[in-house]
Amino acid sequence: MTVSMLGGLLMSALLLWTPLALAALGGLLHRVSGVVNIGLEGQMLTGALVGAVVSGATGDWALGVLAAGAAGGLIGLLMSLCITRLGANEIIAGLGFTIVLSGLIGYLLRSVFDVSGTLRVAGLDPLPRILGLDPLFWLTIIFVPLIGWSLRNTVAGLRLRATGDGFDAANALGLPANGIRDIAGTLAGVFAGIAGSHLVLGQVGLFNENMVAGRGFIALAAFYFGRARPLPTALACLLFAVFDAAQARLQTAGVPAQLIQTLPYVVVIAVLTATAVRGVRGRVRRAG
């Protein structure tokens, strides 16, 4: 592989890394509060559609990103309220929201926009480039150390960790544990919504109802692999992004497309298996 090919692979990986890392960082915050967010996929899809429509309507990529974050945050809050106030199982709630949102968006595409599957928005304003990469990439680079520092050194971060480590103990100390989890769920939705907008405004320039393509679940695997720590989570996302970027190059080398498409999911399974084995070994050492 030549230097130019490696450079192209790296740039593609960094482009693909941005939405994965954003969604994973949001899921990480929710996980630290004690809730596993399985709804990232649906929140990303919602953000992608809203970002595309608002960017096209206003001609402003920034408004599209903000609207996508707001839409994702609203979905995140609603899902969190179902878990914290109605006692819904977090796995079932996350999957349920994802399925409902996917069906609703498919219905809207056909009934409102009169298209099937793919929506091309006139006037869509793509993300600009700063030093060859878009603003959301640089924002994500800032978020990684900022979130890590905040979780360790701020009152909000310590309260979030306390809620996740011991929900009942946090309540007993007077912390609004359910409210903290709702805030974390909302933030997770904001991050996922912005990640979805990046798929449209920073990558393909149109919306497709299948465009998220499992990235929400890959983000879930990434923050598990990173043990809910921002830097390892971001590096896990980079690993997934490299595999994703390598798909096109492997396809040109004659590798069957069906095999290539399974690579990200194989990596997810491998990561989750390695994480589980590592956890079992840790418990065995502590017990011994």
UniProtKB/TrEMBL annotation:
Q: How does it sit in the membrane?
A: Multi-pass membrane protein
Q: Where is the major localization of this protein?
A: membrane
Q: Does the keyword Hydrolase apply?
A: no
List all membrane-crossing ranges.
61-84, 91-110, 130-151, 262-280
Alphabetic keyword roster:
Cell membrane, Membrane, Transmembrane, Transmembrane helix
Question: What superkingdom does the record give?
Answer: Bacteria
What the entry lists under InterPro entries is as follows: ABC_transp_permease
Q: Where in the cell is it found?
A: Cell membrane
Protein name (record): Branched-chain amino acid transport system / permease component
Give the organism, scientific name: Kibdelosporangium persicum
